[in-house]
Amino acid sequence: MNSTHMLLFCLRERLLDSDVISLACFLVEDLRASSPADLSHDEYQTAADWLRTHTRHRPEVAIICGSGLGMLADTLGCQESFAYSDVPGFPQSTVQGHAGRLVFGVLKGKMCVCMQGRFHMYEGHTLSKTTFPVRVFKLLGVKTLIVTNAAGSLADGLQPGDIMIIKDHINFPGFVGLNPLIGPNDDKFGPRFPAMSNCYDKELRCLATEIGKQLEITGLMREGVYAMVGGPNFESIAEARLLHRLGVDAVGMSTAPEVVVATHCGLRVFGLSLITNKVVKTYEDSDSVNHEGVLEVSRLRSVTVQQLVTELIGKMDINNNGPNDAGTKF
Ligand SMILES: O=P(O)(O)O[C@@H]1C[C@H](O)[C@@H](CO)O1
Ligand SMILES: Nc1nc2[nH]cnc2c(=O)[nH]1
């Protein structure tokens, strides 16, 4: 008996009020529809096979570009690109600053695939669709995932234009059951109960800090905790204060589901947030954030982010797949 059958049984036996039952059934269906379990292994495989037959690139590194940071894809050598609409199973990007192209190419001698535009939960995509490309990358042979995003800062030491290397995250939607791993586990991708204590690879974080020194941008860089909220609205002042008190350094509307799915299937992950705005925390402050401002700051710093990511890819050891690799079947 599944949860819906159980609720219907309660209704028949008059154990629960019918309105409560309808609401609960709706929520159960909704949760089920938003988990990767609503996609079969074949759907990921079909996308991976399609890409294998349409490009000779065999990427080892995948990069997901955050809002306004898609220009990184333009720096890849020997490029081949595909509109998301052409790739079987890929959803569409609907947000300004997310072009909706998958770009294959070479960066510092390493084969890469770059998402010029990501999918967000607030666009109405299920979490399985939001994270779909990550599992496709795994099937393509990718070993390392680099995620970037635009985020608002709560930490006093983080200013617009700064780069925060993500040390850890808080997946707030996961607290209320919006986790991409909910549903039957696909053992071919990873274990039922994956650890998340090493989800942002320490060695890559140290390497990025070293590269920051060489690029003379240490003044712009620090490590911190990223929190994902559902969006699409930015934070109220009370929400901002709550996040600040909880120890969140930067807040955004993406990344955590991708990283959870990547860690589940044994990918090594590096993440960075480009701080595009300070989150307003006082009622006296008349500032307010908007998406155009976010994109503007992203574009101003995109070259610096590109340099950091490019050097990191050049210097990373592609064969060290970090501590999360043990559970995968590939
Ligand atoms: O894709 P990311 O996380 O970079 O996008 C951030 C969060 C919202 O999508 C948008 C708000 O401006 O930027
Ligand atoms: N939630 C959230 N996402 C962002 N993305 C860029 N800036 C912000 C912000 O201030 N809050």
TrEMBL record:
<dbReference type="InterPro" id="IPR018099">
    <property type="entry name" value="Purine_phosphorylase-2_CS"/>
</dbReference>
<keyword id="KW-0328">Glycosyltransferase</keyword>
<comment type="similarity">
    <text>Belongs to the PNP/MTAP phosphorylase family.</text>
</comment>
<dbReference type="InterPro" id="IPR035994">
    <property type="entry name" value="Nucleoside_phosphorylase_sf"/>
</dbReference>
<protein>
    <recommendedName>
        <fullName>Purine nucleoside phosphorylase</fullName>
        <ecNumber>2.4.2.1</ecNumber>
    </recommendedName>
</protein>
<comment type="subunit">
    <text>Homotrimer.</text>
</comment>
<keyword id="KW-0660">Purine salvage</keyword>
<comment type="pathway">
    <text>Purine metabolism; purine nucleoside salvage.</text>
</comment>
<feature type="domain" description="Nucleoside phosphorylase">
    <location>
        <begin position="61"/>
        <end position="313"/>
    </location>
</feature>
<dbReference type="GO" id="GO:0004731">
    <property type="term" value="F:purine-nucleoside phosphorylase activity"/>
</dbReference>
<dbReference type="GO" id="GO:0047975">
    <property type="term" value="F:guanosine phosphorylase activity"/>
</dbReference>
<dbReference type="InterPro" id="IPR000845">
    <property type="entry name" value="Nucleoside_phosphorylase_d"/>
</dbReference>
<dbReference type="GO" id="GO:0005737">
    <property type="term" value="C:cytoplasm"/>
</dbReference>
<keyword id="KW-0808">Transferase</keyword>
<dbReference type="InterPro" id="IPR011270">
    <property type="entry name" value="Pur_Nuc_Pase_Ino/Guo-sp"/>
</dbReference>
<comment type="function">
    <text>Catalyzes the phosphorolytic breakdown of the N-glycosidic bond in the beta-(deoxy)ribonucleoside molecules, with the formation of the corresponding free purine bases and pentose-1-phosphate. Preferentially acts on 6-oxopurine nucleosides including inosine and guanosine.</text>
</comment>
<dbReference type="Pfam" id="PF01048">
    <property type="entry name" value="PNP_UDP_1"/>
</dbReference>
<dbReference type="GO" id="GO:0006166">
    <property type="term" value="P:purine ribonucleoside salvage"/>
</dbReference>
<dbReference type="InterPro" id="IPR011268">
    <property type="entry name" value="Purine_phosphorylase"/>
</dbReference>
